[in-house]
Design brief:
Blueprint (H helix, E strand, L loop, with lengths): L1 H16 L6 H27 L3 E6 L4 E6 L2 E6 L3 E6 L3 E3 L3 E7 L2 E2 L3 E7 L7 E7 L6 E5 L1
Antiparallel strand pairs: 1-2, 1-6, 2-3, 4-5, 4-8, 6-7, 8-9, 9-10
Length: about 140
Amino acid sequence: MELLVVIFIISLLLATSFPSFTGIESNSLRSEAKRLASLLRYLNDTATARKEEYYMLVNLGDNSITYLTEEGEKRERIDHLRSIYLETKGEIESGEVKVIFTPLGAGEFIRFHLLRHRGAGRDLSYKVELNPLSGRVRVKDE
């Protein structure tokens, strides 16, 4: 009987001391979506504040984004980037797309789709949207 109590106490301690790894995939995808939203906000706000043209070159082949800052050109990798939607071009899933931010801000509605396949229909998906009228950027969990 004492052995059962000891085993129960040890298993209870182990169960509470191990971190939960179930949310790590979701957290990394959400982090990418927030990073992309921050980049869109930065480019839109900087273009309007400085009265200069900025751009973002989205390469869907290697999931990278190249953009212009005050320090020069920078490049970031967005691992789970699946597509970009532009009002003028529709949904784009391959190739390169150049998004321009003028002194008036983004000229059109922009939506990025980030997706992580988990198998058995349990995909994780986020959409990052920039509204050109308000300049507001939203991250949507889908």
